[in-house]
Amino acid sequence: MSEAEVWARRVRRLALNRQGTEAQVWLEEGFLYLRQDGHARFAQGEGAEGLMGFALFGGGVELAFRDGSRLRLFFRLGRLRRLHFS
Questions:
Q1: Which pTM value belongs to this model?
Q2: pLDDT by residue (tens digit) across 18-57?
Q3: Contact criterion met (CB below 8 Å) for 61 and 45
Q4: Which residue in 52, 54, 55 sits closest to 65, CA to CA?
Q5: Do residues 65 and 2 touch, judged by C-beta distance below 8 A?
Q6: For the chain, which end, N or C, has fewer CB atoms within 10 Å of the first or last residue's CB respectively?
Q7: What is the Cα–Cα distance from 66 to 46, expressed in whole angstroms?
Q8: What is the residue-wise DSSP string for 5-26?
Q9: Cα–Cα distance measured from residue 70 to residue 5, given in angstroms and rounded to the nearest whole number
């Protein structure tokens, strides 16, 4: 099982700010805070050390893991959607 599949099961909620520069990924225990703007790009919180990278985009976030898998989280019709790629 890839890291993206494991994370997809742990994610409970996604919160984005209006500007699309900050995201909070709520997990079973704790949350992951992501920030990407002209001054900073960082991840902190639960599981941040396991990320290889991330990207914020309109309405969602994509997380890249060390094993090469990716997890895309976004809102669609008011519901959280999870797509994982290996």
A1: 0.87
A2: 888 999 999 998 999 999 988 888 899 988 998 999 999 8
A3: no
A4: 52
A5: yes
A6: N
A7: 16
A8: HHHHHHEEEEEE-TTSSEEEEE
A9: 9
